[in-house]
C-alpha cells in the first residue's frame, strides 16, 4: 500500500517534470510542409508537361505493326516528309503545290481502285451459291441459330409431358426471404 507521503512526492515530481508536446507537433508540421512542397513540385512538373506540346516522334521500321502488302503508305509517308520540308523552306510554294497535287491524285486513284475491288467482290459473292467462308454472311449463321431455337421451343411446347409442368405463360418475380 502506498502512503500519502509517497503519493505527494510522486505528484511533486510529476509537476516538476517538463513535458514538451511542441517537439512532436513540430515534427508533424515539418513532415507536412515537406510533403506539401513535394506535392507542389509534382503539380508544377505535371502542369508544365501537360501544357508543353510534344514534337512528333519518328517511328522506326522495327516498331511498325500491320500488314505490309504494298509500299503505298510508305510512299505517302515519304511524300509527307517532302511536303513538310517544302513548307519549312518558305521560299517557294510551287514545290509544295506540286507535291500535294501528286499526292492527292495518288490517294484518289487508290480510292477508285478500292471501290472497284469492293463492288466486284460483293457482286461475285452474291452471284453464285458458294458455301465458302467468304461467301457466307454473318446473318446466315444467326438466322440458322434463331430458326433452330424456335424449333426447339416449339418441340418443348408441343411435348405433352412438359405441358403438365407449365403453370402459366408469363414470368413472375419470386421474392426469396432470408
Brief sketch in words of this structure:
Helix content is 67%, strand content 0%. It is an all-alpha fold and 178 residues long.
Question: What report would you give on this structure?
Answer:
This protein is mainly α and 178 residues long. It has a domain at 69-123. It contains six helices and no strands. Helix 3 runs antiparallel to helix 4. The longest helix has 34 residues, at 94-127. The chain is flat, with a radius of gyration of 41 Å. The two termini are 59 Å apart.
Radius of gyration: 41 Å
Quaternary structure of the protein:
single chain
Class by alpha and beta content: mainly alpha
Helix content: 55-70%
Number of helices: 6
Summary tags:
178 residues, mainly alpha, 6 helices, 67% helix
List the helices and strands and how they pair.
Blueprint: H1 4-16, H2 22-51, H3 72-89, H4 94-127, H5 138-158, H6 160-163
Amino acid at each position: 500500500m502506498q502512503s500519502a507521503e509517497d503519493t505527494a512526492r510522486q505528484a511533486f515530481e510529476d509537476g516538476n517534470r517538463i513535458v514538451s508536446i511542441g517537439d512532436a507537433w513540430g515534427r508533424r508540421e515539418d513532415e507536412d510542409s515537406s510533403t506539401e512542397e513535394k506535392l507542389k513540385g509534382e503539380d508544377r512538373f505535371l502542369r508544365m508537361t501537360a501544357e508543353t506540346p510534344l514534337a512528333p516522334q519518328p517511328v522506326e521500321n522495327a516498331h511498325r505493326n500491320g500488314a505490309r502488302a504494298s509500299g503505298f503508305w510508305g510512299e505517302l509517308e515519304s511524300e509527307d516528309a517532302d511536303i513538310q520540308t517544302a513548307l519549312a523552306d518558305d521560299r517557294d510554294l510551287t514545290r509544295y503545290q506540286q507535291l500535294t497535287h501528286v499526292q492527292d491524285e495518288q490517294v484518289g486513284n487508290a480510292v477508285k481502285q478500292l471501290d472497284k475491288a469492293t463492288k466486284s467482290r460483293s457482286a461475285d459473292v452474291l452471284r453464285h451459291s458458294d458455301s465458302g467462308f467468304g461467301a457466307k454472311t454473318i446473318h446466315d449463321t444467326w438466322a440458322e441459330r434463331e430458326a433452330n431455337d424456335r424449333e426447339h421451343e416449339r418441340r418443348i411446347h408441343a411435348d405433352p409431358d412438359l405441358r403438365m409442368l407449365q403453370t402459366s405463360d408469363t414470368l413472375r418475380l419470386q421474392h426469396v426471404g432470408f
